[in-house]
Amino acid sequence: MTNQNLWWKHGVVYQIYPRSFMDSNADGIGDLEGIISKLDYLQDLGIDAIWLSPIYPSPDADFGYDVADYRDIDPKFGTLESFNRFQEEAHKRNIKVIMDLVLNHSSVEHNWFVEARQSKDNPYRDYYIWADGKNGKAPNNWGAIFGGSAWKWDEQAQQYYLHMFYEGQPDLNWRNPTLYQEMMDIFRFWCDRGVDGFRLDVFNLYYKDKDLRDNPRRFPPTPPFGRIYDWQDHKYDFDQPEMLPALEDIRKILDSYSDRYAIGETYPEVADTAATYAAPGRLHAAFNFTFLHSAWKATDFVKTIHYWEAPAHADIQPTYVLGNHDVPRPATRYAKGEEDARMKVAAVMLLTLRGTPYIYYGDEIGQRDIPVRRRKDIQDPIGKRYFPFMVGRDGCRAPMQWDASPNAGFAKANVKPWLPVHKDHLERNVETQLADPNSLLNQYKTLIKLRKDNPALNAGNLSLFDLNTSDILAFTRTTPEQTTFVCLNFSNKSHQINLPEDMQASTLLYSTHKNIQTQLDSTTYQLQANEAIILRK
Ligand code: NOJ
What percent of the chain is helix, strand and coil (3-state, nearest 5)? Predict the structure, then answer.
């Protein structure tokens, strides 16, 4: 049964990229009032929690992932009062609120950095990582994830500072005890305001080697090959052992409040490190991003599921993600302009696996990425720098498609949204899909409800089946009172499925294809091309 105290274990999380969800004040940028106006939609969808990408004051070098004040709301999104109201309204609808905490780096405009760069004896100097050059060059060979060296010479400070991402994002020095306390206080600040959980941005970078040693060279490099970063093993800039006690301290703070949650983002996404950080006493979960890079093949998805279902990970809460604000959307990756058949199969998989499903706004209607064609139109720093080799992340960040009106209902017709709306919003939008019982959106709603109403789908153990074909992914979810069998066809061919013995003579709980009752007899099921089913016993 669903345990209310473990909402994060049983619930479904919905990620909102606030700039793109709903604009209430006609500036072309989404905001908190806009989100409040859509809470009824989210309640109706059935989600349990909202993760908001950052809404703190930010000069937007990386659209909010460069924070200028950790204890306030950017005026473009609202105020602390509107945040309170948003939180109250969400809570009224039984929706939890997860904030994105970006504590590996701040913005160059954070007051700490403004102070720090003034002089070597400024009390804030050591809040950041400074070093002198070596032989007229950067202090070491580390490369930034957004390209180039990770070091930037600062004229005012007369030293280099470290930035693992953009130069507007200087890395904080977690080894400084005062900074460390500041970080812990930020968790307390938002917990005191009633926030239910946190998504920790790149927390596995918080600590760097104390002696700033050079990373070993790596050959062959990792894709996309063009950055210094791709040619190194990240021995000294990622995953330092000092991380673990910090996670344990964070956990203690969260546990001193009731029912709070933290999920961490590791970079790059290595399953083993994610599992270590999500072990008991540390974070509640760490993202597993493997699905973001899986090919549309049952066998690819099975590998990931196997990993998280291994006995060694029995105490770890898996998370499954098909899309987020950093990668092309699942419909862009998999549907290739076709109808939503594959997206329906993907939705069944996401919402029936053991673990926490994360839905990225718009994926419930199968939004596609907007095309990114010209450098001058690009907003994302990565795309600006590397176009055309890397186009950046604007594609998956376009406004939510609410209806067929100009600007897709995201903003008033006379407003220019910060990114263009996809031209397919005329057909693909929330309003149209709500009215169509066969739409992807209505499938999401039904599946979320099934997951809530069926203990096996919500809390059951998972065991994978080998059906001797690489096209099919099949598993059971079982609790003492119920067994469900989930079977997904990733191919364009029909397959006859011999039902596992304990699922014979079961009933069809759900199919992506309507009116197929005749496909089921007591021992077999004729699975159609791109069909996904759930049987119940
Ligand atoms: C990971 C976030 O998901 C991404 O959007 C951001 O650019 C980097 N961290 C830096 O904060």
Answer: 35, 15, 50
Q: List phi, psi (to 5°) of 86.
A: -60, -45
pLDDT in tens, 235-265: 999 999 999 999 999 999 999 999 999 999 9
Q: How far is the C-alpha of 154 from the C-alpha of 119, rounded, in Å?
A: 11
Of the residues 167, 171, 239, 265, only one is catalytic, namely 265
**Residue from 311, 76, 98 nearest 191 by CA:** 98
Structure tokens at 195: 């926030």
Q: Confirm whether 265 is a catalytic residue.
A: yes
- List, in sequence order, every beta strand (DSSP E) within 372-502: 461-465, 472-479, 482-489, 495-498
Specify burial of residue 143 (Cβ count, 10 A radius: 0-12, 13-18, 19+).
buried
Average pLDDT over the chain reads 94
pTM, full prediction: 0.97
Query: 457 with 450: CB under 8 angstroms?
Result: yes
* 88 carries an active-site annotation: no
* CA–CA distance, 77 with 383 (Å, rounded to integer): 24
Closest of 189, 188, 191, 193 to residue 81, by C-alpha: 193
Backbone angles phi, psi at 475, to 5 degrees: -155, 160
Q: Where does 327-392 show beta strands of DSSP type E? A: 356-360
Q: Is the CB of residue 102 below 6 angstroms from any atom belonging to ligand 1?
A: yes
